[in-house]
């Protein structure tokens, strides 16, 4: 399988991958991913192994991948999971490097040699519906539910550290706030001041607020916690993704502008509350009865009021 995208993109493929594993329980399923998404691959229980397609300057990494491709012989099935209808030079090159009896992908220019070409998705088609159509084309079972699995040792570590913090701050319902990268796609990220106001109100109500900091986000998250008058010891991360996921699993609610971490929380069965743009609500809404959120304008979620978010969260936890 080939899919050089981000973490959330891979999480969205898990209903398809589960169906693939169910139909072919003894198959060796190997994935090729980007360096940006590699950390989530060990959490996907339906693949045997994975390889990383690095940037052009990562010569050693790419030579290892090329060696694997040239030595792996002919595969029974090659799947290009990328639903982007635009021509992909990387995808085209990769599909010619690998030898397979059958090749599957979404309809796009220059993959005419694929035996199965799923009709091109509409730009606003929900992501999981796209993979359902791919599953249908292969006769796979499909349940519209994402799924990840965490190593028990990481769960034990998270439980121990959470228990230590509860000894310090008392036991109450735990909310994990993940503001995300507010420097990127500003319209797709809820503003900092609104996270601060929401956090202050939730803290006043007696909830314990934890914070998730991704790579490069520690300083920003520390400033956010200070403005909410929350101890910096309640900040989780930056940590390896597998450990961060284990901490997410301990929470009563995960709050974020929707991103890869939101999709991880949903795939773990943790209750989520996400802030969406209208377009993200349409395409990327997290499936499940425990997943909630609010949608703003089509390309901008910044107008969503704190009061609406606060009341919605209160209704979920009280």
Description:
The chain is of the alpha/beta class and 318 residues long. The chain folds into two domains: 137 residues, Rossmann fold (3-Layer(aba) Sandwich); 165 residues, Glycogen Phosphorylase B (Rossmann fold, 3-Layer(aba) Sandwich). Strands 9-8-7-10-11-12 form a six-stranded parallel β-sheet, sandwiched between helices. It has a three-stranded parallel β-sheet with strand order 1-2-3. Helix 6 packs across helix 9. The chain is globular. The N and C termini lie far apart (44 Å).
CATH-defined fold name of the largest domain: Rossmann fold
Quote the beta fraction.
15-25%
Shape: globular
Number of helices: 12
Strand order in the largest sheet? 9-8-7-10-11-12
The major sheet is characterized as: 6 strands, parallel
Radius of gyration: 21 Å
CATH C-level of the largest domain: Alpha Beta
CATH architecture of the largest domain: 3-Layer(aba) Sandwich
Number of strands: 12
Percent helix among the residues? 25-40%
Mean pLDDT: 93
The poorly predicted ranges are none
Report how far the terminal alpha carbons are from each other: 44 Å
| CATH superfamily caption of the largest domain | Glycogen Phosphorylase B
Main structural class: alpha/beta
Any chance you could write out the topology, listing elements then pairs?
Blueprint: E1 2-3, H1 7-12, H2 14-23, E2 30-34, E3 49-53, H3 59-71, E4 75-79, H4 89-97, E5 100-106, E6 116-118, H5 127-138, H6 152-169, E7 174-178, H7 192-204, E8 208-212, H8 218-227, E9 235-236, H9 241-248, E10 253-257, H10 260-267, E11 272-276, H11 278-284, E12 291-295, H12 306-317
Parallel strand pairs: 1-2, 2-3, 4-5, 5-6, 7-8, 7-10, 8-9, 10-11, 11-12
Helix pairs in contact: 2-5, 6-9, 7-12
